[in-house]
Design goal:
The chain is an alpha/beta fold. The protein contains 18 helices and 16 strands. Helices cover about 35% and strands about 20% of the residues. A hairpin with a 7-residue loop joins β10 (about 205-215) and β11 (about 225-235). It starts with 6 loop residues before the first strand and ends with a helix. It binds iron/sulfur cluster (2 copies). One iron/sulfur cluster (SF4) binds near residues 326, 329, 364 and 368.
């Protein structure tokens, strides 16, 4: 008889970012897991990994882990005898990008160290991944006794979903992230690389900000959507799985979850997750819009040649909307293949060079990168979306 390992996830409802409500909800959430003082040893070096996507943005846009949510977590940590560093690897035209998101203010107020990881440099480490043999990780992350992962619940137009697993992508340098976008151009392979990185720095605890999430064309051009939950677990894969279930998708159709589950890095099957706190059915948001359908379903069910042709059909094709473009050149600077170019006073995409990585879409803060779909891809997406919705009604 096979014994299935269960993951324990704590799920708490909350309506908004009111500080007192956050404090109470976090306390309840962590009590369901045994209490924060049971999870973190005294005098630990705690590294708090936020999602602070570059270029920086205001918290209301739901692109970053909300600073008031992080503030609530930091207040709980401050009650313990631990050293705290909050960080992410960010780039910004402004001198201090953390000022725009509000992170500088909350960390100064609480007397907590806030670190742009590039300032601490990166150290080469071996990675026994499926794709990567070595990577570079920031020393404050490597040296931490306890990694506390604070992802945002968001869609992702390329990787489908960005949550707990993908949040660890930010502990490697910007230049390497850029290179991996160029090297791993299919979203299933890219997700496999994300899981490789996650496997090198598995968080000890994940607390997801799902109070106001992002739906649609995430991770930056989607719309804020109230989901009203905090999800926490020692198993980051299970946190992602619960977030997906709440937003109406089968978690095992998401490449990162599927891959991490198969590699034994966490539990992705919702049936194998024990949820304490709220009943998951009471917090489900059935009209949540994912940026793309869960094409992992095809990967699991179809022969590889058929899957590959469907995957090509589902690729989004970026197009610059000149009227919205401020010529900030963020997309030109990020494009890994020099396909986004500044030419004759405007920005254009050289179609023959584009690998559809959607980095241009991710960095644009003016909704000036439209994502087009191929006709067959559009149809497949609609049918699969409908299928997922019907299935989620009965599970
Ligand atoms: S498309 Fe967006 S990111 Fe690119 S230059 Fe225009 S406004 Fe900036
Ligand atoms: S134009 Fe955009 S999608 Fe195409 S390669 Fe450049 S960043 Fe990637």
């Amino acid at each position: 008889m096979t014994i299935v390992k269960k993951a324990s996830v704590s799920l708490v409802k909350i309506t908004d970012y009111d500080s007192e409500k956050i404090h109470n909800a976090l306390e309840t959430c962590l009590l369901n897991l045994g209490g924060i003082e049971k999870l973190i040893q005294p005098r630990s070096n705690v590294f708090v990994k936020i999602n602070h996507l570059s270029p920086p943005s205001l918290p209301e846009k739901a692109i970053v882990t909300h600073p008031l949510f992080t503030r609530g977590v930091l207040c709980l940590l401050k009650q313990l005898d631990v050293n705290i560093t909050v960080g992410d690897d960010i780039y910004s035209k402004e001198e201090d990008g953390f000022l725009i998101s509000g992170y500088r203010q909350i960390c100064d107020e609480l007397g907590v160290r806030l670190l742009n990881l590039k300032e601490a440099g990166f150290q080469e480490v071996r990675c026994k991944g499926e794709l990567l043999e070595k990577i570079f990780i920031s020393p404050p992350v490597l040296e931490a006794d306890f990694i506390l992962n604070l992802p945002k619940l968001k869609t992702h137009s390329f990787a489908i979903f960005t949550g707990a697993i993908k949040n660890m992508f930010g502990v490697i340098p910007h230049g390497l992230r850029h290179r991996y976008h160029r090297e791993f151009i299919k979203n299933d392979v890219f997700s496999q690389m994300l899981v490789d990185i996650f496997s090198c720095v598995p968080p000890h605890l994940t607390i997801m900000d799902g109070i106001v999430a992002m739906e649609g064309e995430g991770p930056s051009a989607g719309n804020p959507k109230k989901v009203g939950v905090i999800i926490a677990s020692k198993d980051a894969v299970a946190v992602d799985a619960v977030a997906l279930k709440i937003t109406g998708s089968n978690p095992m159709n998401i490449y990162t979850i599927q891959n991490a589950h198969e590699r034994g890095l966490g539990i992705g099957r919702i049936e194998d997750i024990e949820i304490t706190g709220e009943n998951i059915h009471d917090v489900e948001v059935r009209d949540f819009k994912h940026s793309t359908i869960a094409i992992g379903l095809f990967k699991r069910k179809l022969p590889s040649f058929l899957y590959a042709s469907i995957q090509n059909q589902l690729t989004f094709i970026p197009e610059i909307i000149t009227e919205n473009c401020t010529v900030c050149l963020e997309c030109v600077n990020i494009c890994p293949l020099d396909a986004a170019r500044f030419k004759e006073d405007s920005v254009r995409i050289e179609k023959s060079l584009c690998i559809h990585c959607l980095c241009c879409h991710e960095v644009c803060r003016y909704q000036a990168v439209k994502l087009n779909q191929r006709p067959l891809g559009k149809m497949i997406r609609r049918v699969s979306s409908l299928y997922e919705k019907i299935v989620s009604l009965f599970t």
